[in-house]
Specification:
Blueprint lengths: L14 H23 L5 H21 L1 E6 L3 E4 L2 E5 L7 H7 L2 E7 L4 H16 L7 H8 L4 E5 L20 H7 L4 H20 L6 H15 L3 H15 L3 H21 L2 H18 L4 H14 L2 H12 L6 H9 L6 H10 L3 H15 L3 H5 L7 H14 L5 H7 L5 H11 L5 H8 L7 H14 L5 H9 L8 H15 L4 H9 L7 H17 L2 H10 L5 H26 L1
Antiparallel strand pairs: 1-2, 1-4, 2-3, 4-5
Length: 575
Amino acid sequence: MEETSFEKEIPTFDPVELSRAKKTVESLLLTIKSIMIYPEDNPIPQEHKRKLLDKFSEFLETYEELKIEFKPSQLYYKGELIHQDYKEKESLAYSVHRDGVREITFTKNLTDKELSDLLEVFQVALSSPSSEDDLVTMLWEKDFDHISYQVIDEFVMEEIELNLQEHKSLNFENFYSEMNVPQEKKEMHDSQEEAKTTTILQNVKSFVKDEVIKIDELLRRDESCDGLQDVLEILEQILTKETELKEFNETVKVIEKTLDQFLEKGEFESAFKSIQLIVELEQSFKDDSPQRSSRLVEVVNRAGDSERIKSVCSILNQEGETELQWARAYLCSLNWNSIFNILNMLGELDNYPARRMVCDVLADFGKEYFDMVARGITDHRWHVVRNVVMVMRKIGDPRAIPYLKETIKHDQLQVRRETIKTLELFRGSEATQILLSALDDPSTRIRIRVFNLLGKNGERKALNPLLQIVKSKDFKNKSVEEKKTILFSLAELGKDEVVEELKRMAKKRNWFFQEKDLDTKALAIRALGLTNTANARKALEELSRKGKKQLREASQKALERVNRQLNKEGQNYEN
C-alpha cells in the first residue's frame, strides 16, 4: 500500500515571539501579585519590577510592540491565548475587561516610570473593585507616551449565542387566572392535549416518510415559536376590540403586572417589546378614544417611575451577564418624565459598562430635552456630575456652555478634566472665557491641557494672560512640561509680538544659576523657533553667538528651523 504523506501544518504565528510574549505577561502578573502581597519598600517586589522592565525592554527591542487583548478571564496576543485565569472575579483580565478596556499596547522605549505608574493603576483597580473611579480614568491621568489602550466608546455587548428555548418568564397559570379562565376548563384542555400527544407518539411507526418530514417541520416551527409575541398579539386584539372601558382597564392592569415581572427578572427585551406595544396602541387611540389613550400614557409613565428604575438598577448591579442593549432599548422607550430617575441611575450603578449605557440613553434624551439632562450637574455626587458632563460632550450642543461655567469650578479633579474635554468641542468668546478661568487650576495636568487648547485654537484673548504668567516670579518654578506648553502656546499666538519677551528670557542673567533657569532659557529659545518670523531669526542669530554652549546649540537648531520655514514661505509666495 502506498504511504500517505501529510504536509506539516505551518503555524500562523512565530512560536518564539509567542513564547516571549507569554513570558513577559507572566512576569507582569507575577509583579502585580508581589505588589499586592508585600509592602512597597520590600526588596521582593522591587526585584520583580526590575526584571519586568528587562523583559519588556528585550521584547520591545525585537518586536517594537506588545499588544495584550483582554477577555473576562483570558489574555491574548495576536489572537493566541497566553494566559487563563480560573478565579475570574479576582483577576487582572476581569478588572480590565469590566471597565471597558479591550487592549493595552506597549511600544518601544517604554520607561521605568511608565511601568511603575501602570502597576500602581492595576493595584488600585484590583484592590478597590467598587471604586467610584474607573480604570479608564486612572489610565488617562497617567498620560502615558509608550502605553496606549483601546476603550469601547460606544458600549456594545459581545454577541451572545441565541438558544432557541421557551420564554421562561411567562407564567401562564397566573395569566389564566388574570383572564378569569375557570380552572376546570384549563385542566380539561391540558388533559385533552396530553391524550392527543400520546396517541401520536404511539402511532409514530405507522407514518410514511413524507408524513415524518411534515411532522419534523411542524416540530421545528413549534421550537422557534416566540411565546411572548403570541401573548402580545392576543393582548393587542383584546385591547383594540374591547368596548367596555372597565374591561379595557382590567386588561391594562394585567400588562402592568406582567411588565413588573419582566423588570424584576431582568428580562429587558420582553419589557421593551411590551412598552412598544403600549406606545403603538396609545397612538392609535389618541383621536378616537382619549380616555384609553390617557390610560396607556399612564402605563409608560409608570414604567419609568422611581420604583421601576430601581428594579432596573438592581438587576444591572447583580453579578452575571446582562443584555445591556435591551436594557438601553427599554430605557429609551420611556417618556421624558423618566429623565430624573435615569439620571439617578448614574449614582446607583456599580459597574462601568452599565453606567456607560445609561450615559448613551441620556445623550439620546438630551438631544430634545437638553436642559433636563444638564441639570444633573447639581447632583451632590461628583461621579454623577462627571458623567453628566460626558453626556453633554456626547451631545455636542453649545447649550452646554452655561453649565460648563459651573463645572469648571467643581472641587473634584475628574469633573474639571471632563469639562475641559467637552470645551474642546466649542469655539468662541464664551468657551474661551471658561478656559481662561482655568489657567490657575490647582491641577498641573488641567493647566497644561488648557494651555495646549488655547494655543491650538489660536485664541488671541489668551495672549496677555499667558504673558503675565511668563513674567511672574513663580514661572521658573513650574514643571518643565508646563513651562514648555505655556511658551509654545505663547509663540503660536503672539508671533512677532512675543519675540522680545522670549529673547529677554533667553538672555536673562541669574546671580544664583540653577538647573531650572537653564531649562527656562532653552525652552524660550525653542519657542522663538516656533514664531517663524524675521525678527525671531535675528534674535536667534544673536543668541547662537553668545552664552553657554548648550544654549548656543539650541539657538542654532531653532535658527535652522526658522530659516527652513521662511524659505518655504518665500518659495510659496514666488509660486
